[in-house]
Amino acid sequence: MPEPEEQAEELLKDGSDICQQLMDRYARSSAPQHRHLLATAAAMRSILASESLSLTPPAYFAAAIDTAASNSDTLDSTAAAALLSFLSVVLPLVPAQEISAEKAGEAVSVLVNLVGKERGSDGGLAVATVKAVVKCLGILLGFCDLENWDSLKLGFQTLLDFSIDRRPKVRRCAQDCLVKAFKSFKSSGVNKAASKLVLSMLKNNMPLAVKLSSLKAVDGSKDDALSKPEHLEVLYMLSVVKISVPSLSTKVSSKVISEIVKLLNSKFSVLTRHVFQVVEAFFETSRVEVTVPETEKIVDSLVSYVSSGDKNPVDTDISAATLLKRALDILHDKESSLWIRNLPLVCGCLAGLLSSEASIASLASSILKELLSHLADYKTLLTDKDKPSDDEGQESMEASAIKSVCLIFENALATYSGTPDEHILGVITVLFLNLGEISYVFMKSIVLKLADLMILANGGTSNTDHLRKCIGSAVIAMGPERILTLLPISLHADLTCLNIWLIPILKDYVVEASLGYYIENVVPLAKSFERASRKVKKLATSQDLQAHAHDLWGLLPSFCCHPTDTYQNVGALAEILITFLKEDSFMHKNIAIALQVLVYQNKNVLSPKTESAEPNSFAEKDCVLQFRNVPTYSKKIATKNIKALASCSTELLQALTNLFVDSLPEKRSYLKDAIGCLASITDSSITKMILLSLFERFQFVDGEGEFEKLGSDNQAMIDKEQGNLSSTEKEIQR
């Protein structure tokens, strides 16, 4: 059954007498506390009636307080409990402003005196009664002078004392009232004085707290370390500090966090979780300037804890990792030099968690990804002198930190016997993408290690999706030219192929490369494989070499995805493409797609609202360009690119048109879109000329350019052709 004070909100809803409502509610109850409560209520009503006072909550409150004050020496525990219970019912019903600050202060003194005597007696008060007193004290503080500390000190101190009470209901009620009291204070002086009381409580408990923080708990249990009541009070005290943090004055906050840092230990103790919660409370406040001076100390302590090598409880490792992220977020926002200086330290300890159980590894991976995403802000500060060297004195702080971070993950990769999992590979992927081109300076060894892992994995059954994606991110960051410098694709004299596994990755991840590089390096390499395939006698080997050559040629659409030198080299590329278009070649579809990509990615810059049919597989690549420092193309560059494409579009368009006419229906779908795309940038007189020549070829016009009457066979052929062309979009998407 709920305690009487918990029914207060249901009382006096119709303005009825409190005493009468209590009678109606508990008259049939045989519980002793209810009988005593009704007797007290009747006595209070009798007092009011004898003095001809109205039966209102303020009048009942005044009568009860006067009774408690005048009879404090003679009240036994039963009578005191009933009187206090009655007060807890009445007081919440007293309207604001109905009790003066002076009377509220006197009432606080009466209650503190009464509960103090009962706490010292043998019998003592029941938990519900003490909770009722605490609740009354919390309410009475709201009636006191909220700008006068002398009016508030006794009540606040008493709430603070009860906030570490061993009885859970009493303790929680006192802590709730404490938080409300802090929020109600209207003077910085009052807030400062209240904050000092919290700090005093913390300091008084620090010797014992430091001792407990050094005691290692067994398997995360409390063991015997908290068997003594004073030991439990340390935990309760930390809870009070945690809930008080948002309200503490700035000066006191700084002193409190300085004390709390002393309790951070490299080993798990009975206090670890509570200390972490207090630190978290500080990080969650908006007053970051308080925590910055101590943040590095917190980082050092948390790193020591995570890296201790002990088997810490999972939840504490998760808390420590989360706190490390928040600590570095504070440094990044306020002291960027401290952020970059501490980054390797934090990355080192969190990298150790990547091989932990799934929940911890996943969290560590997410935190590391978010931390490393900030590196994009620092790479622009690096210069040529920042390249890694043996002379560490010549490196900037940024270069030294990035070098250390890369070495951490290089060493972490070395600990894996098989294919690394998604957690570490995901982190390295983010590192590549955020360092961009300078990853070639700092991450060469990681690329070589990933290549070794890929070669080993190709000979087994392990899933290489995450490994491929990681190497792909290196292709995006460094560019294919640098990747192929580190991992050259080549054909040896004995016909063994080196790094052929890289070709499918290049196909998926090349972006913002050079057409000139494709022409000068990839094309000759593909031709060398073709020549070798023709010379070798063994059919299987010949077919393999021919397939590799086709794969290299097939990199064309990828190299056409936002190339950096379109207007400089598209003419030379067109000559190669036209040669293929005039032959029965495997390259027709690749060329059709590549031309569309080249045209539409430039047209979209000049007319972004135009709906284009850029192939989906390449439109999706645009998302990786967010890691670049500048937009892919400016309107000036896009204009130059379109002009260069238009200058060689006539021959391309003519070759595509001829190929379209001579091709089987299943090939015409992708050719049709390539023709339409090139026609959109070609002079209309040229497209008209090509169209007329096509009509003449099919005898749709006579020699003088006049349309002839279409026969039924011709019309049927055209209708059939239109049906074949309707599937173009599906083909392109495939």
Structure summarized in a few sentences:
The chain has 734 residues and is an all-alpha fold.
Structure description:
Residues 355-661 form the RRP12 HEAT domain. InterPro entries: ARM-type_fold, HEAT_RRP12, HEAT_RRP12_N. It comes from Quercus lobata. It holds the Pfam family RRP12_HEAT. Residues 5-290 form the RRP12 N-terminal HEAT domain. The structure is a single chain. With 734 residues, this protein is mainly alpha-helical. Among the domains are: 1-186; 560-733, no CATH class. Helix content is 68%, strand content 1%. It has helices at 18-26, 32-50, 57-70, 77-90, 101-120, 127-143, 149-162, 168-184, 188-213, 229-244, 250-261, 272-284, 288-306, 314-334, 336-351, 358-372, 397-414, 422-435, 439-442, 444-458, 465-478, 480-486, 502-509, 515-535, 539-553, 556-559, 566-581, 588-606, 616-619, 635-647, 649-662, 665-679, 684-697, 712-725, 728-733, and strands at residues 490-491, 497-498. Strand 1 (490-491) and strand 2 form a beta hairpin. Helix 5 runs parallel beside helix 7 and helix 17 runs parallel beside helix 20 (444-458). The protein starts with 17 loop residues before the first helix and ends with a helix.
List the helices and strands and how they pair.
Elements: H1 18-26, H2 32-50, H3 57-70, H4 77-90, H5 101-120, H6 127-143, H7 149-162, H8 168-184, H9 188-213, H10 229-244, H11 250-261, H12 272-284, H13 288-306, H14 314-334, H15 336-351, H16 358-372, H17 397-414, H18 422-435, H19 439-442, H20 444-458, H21 465-478, H22 480-486, E1 490-491, E2 497-498, H23 502-509, H24 515-535, H25 539-553, H26 556-559, H27 566-581, H28 588-606, H29 616-619, H30 635-647, H31 649-662, H32 665-679, H33 684-697, H34 712-725, H35 728-733
Antiparallel strand pairs: 1-2
